[in-house]
Amino acid sequence: MKILFLNGPNLNLLGTREPDKYGNQTLNDIEEYIKKEAELLNVEVNFYQSNIEGELVDKIQSAKNEYDGLVINPAAYTHTSVAIRDALLAVNIPAVEIHLSNIHKREEFRKISLTAPACIGQITGFGANSYKLGLIAITDYLKSL
Ligand code: CA2
Question: In sequence order, what are the residues at sequence separation of 6 or more whose Cβ sits closer than 8 angstroms to the Cβ of residue 126?
């Protein structure tokens, strides 16, 4: 089983700024941790991050014949991107949306996710642990098919 973790804009800054909101771990730290967890589950995982909407769309499209599932933190594009939503619907690969912070506890504009309706479900507010919960959710879902 092969899972792709997609990360949207500014998540490359994790661990360097705003630790109160997004924690102390870098995206690389999270990736290393998730790779270890994935090994225990006998699942292969890859990470991709981009600050560019079109690059995320391209990556979703190219995942079509390579990945069984997606775990996506679209970051700010969560709230704006019809293009990422359409790409998720177009490839029809099961996806789980994740967020470090609880987007429902923050500003009004963050409570809306354009991308979540294209996913199986959403995990939000568990810090870096949202990545692990996302891995478990997508793995369990794919195993149940
Ligand atoms: O809570 C999440 O995971 C978010 O997807 C993070 C996004 C935000 O726009 C979403 O509403 C919720 C922001 C990612 C920015 O990451 C930074 C990391 C360190 C320093 C500054 C930004």
Answer: 100, 133
Give me the catalytic one of 67, 99, 104, 131: 99
How do residues 110-136 score in pLDDT, each as one tens digit? 999 999 999 999 999 999 999 999 999
**Ligand 1-lining residues (CB < 6 angstroms):** 10-11, 13-14, 17-18, 22, 73, 75-76, 78, 99-101, 103, 110
Domain chopping of the chain, boundaries: 2-144
Q: Tell me the pLDDT band of 33, cut-offs 50, 70 and 90.
A: very high
Cβ neighbours for 56, distance < 8 A, ≥ 6 positions apart? 6, 8, 50, 74, 77, 84, 87
CATH number of 2-144: 3.40.50.9100
Structure confidence at residue 18 (pLDDT)? 87
What local confidence, expressed as pLDDT, does residue 135 receive?
99
